[in-house]
Amino acid sequence: MSTTRQQPPWNQPQPHAESASRLPPLKIYNSLTRSKVPFVPLDPSGRKVTWYACGPTVYDDAHLGHARNYVSNDILRRIMRDYFNFDVQFIMNITDVDDKIISRGRQQHFFTEYVNSHPSIDDDVISTVRAAFAAYLEKKLPLLEAGLTPERYSDEVEKVYAAILNGGALDGSGKPGDDEAKIKMHIKTAASAANVLSTIATSKESILSETFYKNVQDVLLEHLDSLYGSSIRGEDRSIFTKLTKTYEDRFMKDIRDLNVLDPDAVTRVTEYMPEIVQFVERIVQHKFAYVTSDGSVYFDITAFEASGNSYARLEPWNRNDTKLQAEGEGALINRTTEKRSPADFALWKASKAGEPSWPSPWGDGRPGWHIECSAMASAKLGKQMDIHSGGIDLAFPHHDNELAQSEAYWHENCAHDHWVNYFLHMGHLSIQGSKMSKSLKNFTTIREALDKGDWTPRSLRIVFLLGGWKDGIEITEDLVKAGNAWEEKANNFFINARDSVAQTNSDAGSTDDTLATALKSAQDAVYQNLCDSFNTAGAMYAISELISKYNISNKSTLPVKDVQEAAVWVTSMVNIFGLNGSALPVIAEIGWSGIDIPDASKPYLYPLSTMRDSLREAARAKSGISEEAIKSIVEKGTAVVKQTLDVPEEAEVYKNLLSDFCTKISSLKQTDSVSKEILSLCDRVRDIDLFDLGIYLEDRDNQPALVRPVTRELIQAREEKAARAHQKQIERENKEKESLKRAERGKISHLDMFRTNEYSAWDDDGIPTKDAAGEEVTKSRSKKLKKDWERQKKAHEAWLASNRGNFS
């Protein structure tokens, strides 16, 4: 068997004569070469692209790490389809048969049954949970002494795992990684159970069963499975399909909420069992697999390589990594001595008690993880595909094994093409240096992140666009700020450009080609960057630079045609990147969702804004504003209020706001301060009344106020202003308190300040000469007392001066 650590040769696909001239100069970073190579589709016309993406294993909710994979995949797919105009056939699988699914399905099933049959926390329950706790420590935290009780757990774990708890590595050197993250998770899980078990043993008060089971669930799950798991019959798959159906539905909702396009087709393992069995049979017939005595089937790596094939095309340097191999085989794999090589992997797993099974020529069993994708992808796309994608953690062994067994299936006298021409791997999303993982429980689910408002589908996608697709991303404060800044910049551009186009009626005399030139440069830069292996970070920068050119331009000299073309193009690009919901990639409109005020508000807020503009202009005039002018302006607003009778419920708040504003202005008395009062009301309706409704009036010189939604930047500016005002108020109050303290201290006369029990003799000024024991005060002490006396003398004289009137 070859032990080379170099990737084997890869054959560059050649364009067909009929399509060569039409193909874009697109290069893609291909994991099969670890370099950027020209993209040439299999389709002779050069338009159709076949693409298979590894989907989720559905046993838990998707987290932000999954969002990274599926959103980035979606970005690349959209660019291929909507920018380069390829006809993409996109297939995604759902893994609904897997060791993790089997374990989780059984655990949830038995836990639910146990809780239902033990609604009260009695001695039997406590005994069972204590046994589960002991088993959990033995398996997950083996450095702790055997038989450690919950009562002693906290002290012992802090001693034994001090290095990890203090943020270090288990061996005391190097940086902590996933192993340390797992141990931290186990420590936390065990602590939760230990705390509730200790409490219930020492407290006379009962604990709610719901609280108890919530705290011990994670240690109890595996224990119950170890006791009863084998009782599940192989043909009874309902407890597993119930789990997978639930989490598939939740997964699809999550990625749709992130604006990820649905696949053109979804394949599920349970729906392809005959094809999988046939796939394994053919590999056995080709003598690249063998059957063991228990009815399992293993891939024969030695035979495969002896026939001139290459194993581990993606990561040959990892082919002897036993840890990765074990993870790829799953926790429920049969341990056998019949494997011809330790690296041989399961194509078909013989059934064990408690596992779902399907019939096969070798006996009842279930497919190995890797064979599932090979069989389903081949069933949908045939002997070759253009693109296969997935997370980088799948490269070895999953994708390497997929490639090997698929080439073994399609093998014909060693004269075969690559099964996959381009392998794309999305980089990890990291949190505190450790990749997000279901097994680590160090993740925030997609729905949690969206529900809490930490992220929006747009803000998350912008971060991924700025970070690129193939390299790992660590969410940092700087990266989040950069994403927010890009979004805010685009928001302002769309709002201002749309207003500029709406306000301008003619381009007569406009000769400034600054924006037209900047647009051409941006378009060229975006094309070059996207042809450079989908360099979205570079493309986003080019778009940002175009907006900057617009921002610093003299708007009065820019042709409206150029503004419109630039804004429409930027809109098209954000649509292509999936930043604007379901909007079509090429439209004549400007902007994305969120830059407009609610439709229900427009009949009232546009008149209010016009009325406010007129009031501000008149109030700021040197001559001031007359009573007649106020009346004339307000009448236009009240007319709007009166003419709308059947007001939709959602519009009531805006109608009332206009009405109240008219009433407050009308009620002002015609005094010297009326202009100032009007300006104050105009500020209030902008800064408070409308702002609290999510709408802002942006005042501009020599132009009407711009009516726009409140943005994150405006909210932040308001919060910072409020924080500064609050800080000033605190400082003012502290000054006043200090002044009061000084005043209180000044009440005491300097002649009396030292006449206390601490001393026994004083001079004529009241400065101590002897301490309480009659000893002479030292020179150094006397010197300090004299300074204190002088300070108090000044303070007392100041107090007397400030209160002289009170003594007359």
UniProtKB/TrEMBL annotation:
GO MF annotations in UniProt: ATP binding; cysteine-tRNA ligase activity; metal ion binding
Keyword list, A-Z: Aminoacyl-tRNA synthetase, ATP-binding, Ligase, Metal-binding, Nucleotide-binding, Protein biosynthesis, Zinc
Entry-linked CDD domains: CysRS_core
Cofactor or coenzyme needed: Zn(2+)
Acyltransferase in keyword set: no
Organism: Paracoccidioides lutzii (strain ATCC MYA-826 / Pb01) (Paracoccidioides brasiliensis)
UniProt region (Disordered), positions on chain: 1-22, 719-743, 760-808
Organism domain of life: Eukaryota
GO biological process: cysteinyl-tRNA aminoacylation
Residue ranges of domain tRNA synthetases class I catalytic in the record: 46-482
Ranges that cross the membrane: none
One cellular component (GO) term of this entry: cytoplasm
Bias (Basic and acidic residues): 787-797
Entry EC number(s): 6.1.1.16
Top EC category: ligase
InterPro entries: Cys-tRNA-ligase, Cys-tRNA/MSH_ligase, Rossmann-like_a/b/a_fold, tRNA-synt_1_cat_dom, tRNAsynth_Ia_anticodon-bd
Protein name as annotated: cysteine--tRNA ligase
